[in-house]
Known about the structure:
This protein is α/β, with parallel strands linked by helices. The protein has helices spanning about 5, 45-50, 70-80, 90-100, 120-125, 170-180, 230-245, 250-265, 265-290, 310-320, 345-355, and strands at about 30, 85-90, 110, 130-135, 155, 185, 210-215, 225-230, 290, 300-305, 320-325, 325, 335-340.
Amino acid sequence: MKGSHEMKWEENVRKVVPYVPGEQPQKKNVIKLNTNECPYQPSPMVEKAMKEMDYRTLRLYPEFPEKTPLTKYLAEYHQTEEEQVFIGVGSDDVLSMAFLTFFNSDRPVFFPDITYSFYDVWADLYRIPYEVKPLDADFCIRKEDYIGKNCGGVIFPNPNAPTGVLMGVDEIEEIVKANPDVVVIIDEAYIDFGGTTCLPLIKRYDNLLVVRTFSKSRAMAGCRIGYALGGKKLIRYLNDAKYSVNSYTMNRPALRLGAESVKDEAYFREICGKIIATRQRSEKELAALGFTFPKSYGNFIFASHEKVGAKEIFEKLKEQDIYVRHWNRERIDRYLRITIGTDEQMDALFAALARI
Ligand SMILES: *Cc1c(COP(=O)(O)O)cnc(C)c1O
């Protein structure tokens, strides 16, 4: 049983080139500035709830995903109705479900050429046609590319990843308004670090979906919590698709701990404020070391050195157990994406960069 016969089933496999996340080194004591995690702990209320959790509740299926403590607190926090909140296992789960549900046209979905590199993977996986729209020379999204072009949907992060460049709410509104027959998804993974949310627009536009995550600003990447906000009809369609794949994606502990995090707004503001302050200081330090970068509204800086190549810096930092992110891709291979860590971690980075 060799050769062609054996190979035939492979022709019928759904093949995809998977997304590659940043490295998660097993070594201890590394300075990890490569996946935009939060350097601070989750809220003390999360800690308390985790310690009080009763393992016996794991016997039961979790709450019905449309109506949980988490959806309740998120709706209160964002002043929406609970039927306007969709939750998932990280925003990757939410975004994947949104691609499957809303991008169902023969016309191509539009997103930027430099952006979150999961979008083209989902499009390929679900066989959704797409077209990438080049950012301008300053890494800004050109809103004209998304207006009057008869597309099958629009998605981009705001601020964009990995550049950190923010688009104004007025421009987003123009895009949403110009595309009433398709869904526009704004991925606000990094909005808590100083950007202005476009969330108020969901009241006026029923084709806008705003996606958020607990992984960056809420220091809970390991818990896998993401959510989307939009009109009730959008959320209903998302839940219909979700229930058709796996009704109970989120587990009991995640639902409980996520709700605790939302309750503790003071702590949330405090850690976001610290990261913004460290980012501002890092801009000065990096500029003094000869780096240039677009103004970032994320918990990272996308920086390029005038003399030394990014790959070389990336490798030399790694030798010193400092991990940052580098892509061997056209247009961005001269750049490093550096996550904002604690002040001490950043000082270690600046010292290492000075040596290089
Ligand atoms: C990190 C990130 C996500 C995914 O985050 P989850 O951990 O799955 O919630 C989504 N979009 C962008 C732009 C991101 O940077």
